[in-house]
Amino acid sequence: MIKNYFKKLCVAFLIVGSLNATAQEVPTPKAHFGFTIGDDYQLANYTQTEAYFKKLAATSKRVKLVDIGKTEEGRSQYMLIISSPENLKNLDRYKDLSKNGTRRRFKP
């Protein structure tokens, strides 16, 4: 009985430990930029923001980084899509549904 309890306790610690490690992989804005967004006299530049977006996309299964075109300076302009991993896998399907549904709704 004690062995069974010990095994369950060890499994519980492993699960909690892995969840905690996963949660710590995604960097906070303060950890990345070195200041809280919105602090007086603190602004993130393009290079810092781009690096943060790429880091989020690399460390989270819930984030997809999309290049949506060029800025006036010729740099890539990024958009983050944040959703469940299942929704991100079906993103193209949801785009099609959105486009088709809108057309049908407004057709006479």
Care to count the β-strands?
A: 2
Shape designation: globular
Order of helices and strands: HHHEEHH
Q: Uncertain spans, ≥5 residues at pLDDT below 50?
A: 5-13
The Cα radius of gyration reads 21 Å
SS-derived structural category: alpha+beta
Strand content: 5-15%
Largest beta sheet: what is the strand line-up? 1-2
User: Averaging pLDDT over every residue, what do you get?
Assistant: 80
SSE layout and pairing:
Elements: H1 2-25, H2 29-33, H3 46-59, E1 63-70, E2 76-82, H4 85-89, H5 91-106
What are its keywords?
two-stranded antiparallel ribbon, 5 helices, alpha+beta, 108 residues
How would you describe this structure to a colleague?
This protein is α+β, with helices and mostly antiparallel strands. It contains five helices and two strands. It has helices spanning 2-25, 29-33, 46-59, 85-89, 91-106, and strands spanning 63-70, 76-82. It has a two-stranded antiparallel ribbon. The chain is globular, with a radius of gyration of 21 Å.
